[in-house]
Each structure stands twice: as C-alpha cells, then as structure tokens.
Amino acid sequence: MHFSRLLAALLMAWLAGPAQAALFSDDEARRAILDLRQRLERVQEQTQSREDAGRSLLTLQNQIEALRAELARLRGENEELARSVADLQRTQKDLLQGLDERLRKFEPVKVTVDGREFMAEPAEKREFEAALGIFRKGEFAAAQGAFVEFLGRHAQSGYAASAHFWLGNARYATRDYKEAVQNFRTLLAQAPDHLRAPEAVLSIANCQIELKDLRGARKTLEELIKAYPQSEAAAAAKERLARLK
Hints:
two-stranded antiparallel ribbon; 245 residues; 10 helices; 2 strands; mainly alpha
C-alpha cells in the first residue's frame, strides 16, 4: 500500500507541469516508475505467498486435528474390541468348563468295591450306593426292591456280585431264605474269588439251617472250611458244624 501511494504521487508530479517536471527527466521518471512497480509486484507476491502459506498451514492444522480425532476414535474402537474379545474368551472358557463338568457326570469312573476294581457309570455307582444305604438303615424290604431294580438295569455291572450278596442278606433278614440262597449261589458262580464269597457260603448254610435242612447245612459248612480254610467264615463254620453234630 505504501508503494502504491508513492507511485501515484510520482505520476501526479510528472503530470503536474513544467515546474514539477523539472525535478525528473522523462527517462529517470520512467525508470523510477518501473522500479517502484517491480517492488510493488514483489511485495504483492510475497504477501500472496504469506497468505497462501497461512492458508496451507491452517489446512494442515485442520488435517492434523482431524487425524488426531480419527486416531482417538480408532483407539476407542480398539479398546472396545479388546474388551469384547476378553469377554468372549471368558464366556468361552466358562462354557467349556461347564461342558467338561457335564460330560464328566456321564464318564465312567474307577471304583473299588469289596476288593474289586472296575469302571462304572456315574448313574450305576449312585444307584448301587443308594441301595446299600437303604440296607444299612435296616430297611430290608425296601433294600430288596432297590437291589432287584439295580440288577435288572445293570446285570453285567462290576457291582453285580456285591449286589447279589447284599440282596441275599436283605432277603435273609426278611426270612425269604430260598431266594436268599439263590442270590448267594449266584455270587459264587459269578465270582468264586470274591472277597465276600466265604460269607456267602456261610450265609447259605444259615439259610439251610433256618429251612431245617441240617444235612445240607453240614455239607455246606464242610465245603466252606475246605474252600476257604483261612477265612473268618471258616472259623465260624467249624463252630457251627460242631454244634450241628
């Protein structure tokens, strides 16, 4: 703006008349005007460059702010995604753990009963223990029903021999001696080396005594002493055999 006023003043002085024109020759005036014009153009170019630079800087700042906002948004989404993944992993872990626990309820388990080790289904184990619990409470009639149902469902079970032993005892307690004898004999036929086999033979003899089959009882006691000589049942058999004679 300063150079524009200066240029205008020089032009007015050149046009003012002889008195003022004497200050400058025509060539000098033209050179001065051209020089001033060039300076003015340079100033205008510099000003325009500064303005363009300012606009570019503002645009760049706006772009930086936009990028910062986008970065913040992406970070937020990433954190939310990380939380979702963590929640999903926890849910998956809980589901797998729950599934594993449910499956374990149906998987066979290793059990040891009367010195015999075998694999049994969880339901099978629960049913046998429930029937035995009824017997131990002295509810012999109910125990008979529970063991009969158990053997009906699990005839080939590793519990079968023990189930026949306890069913025989429940029947003996209710004076069903003939059926008791059948249960004890079934145990001996299935597992002659069973831990309770000597007791089963002694129980057969007891049932025979109750049935007044003393000859049969003596024979059974003799067989017990011969088959299981070191057992406690054999010692009891010797005492009873002495009384029967």
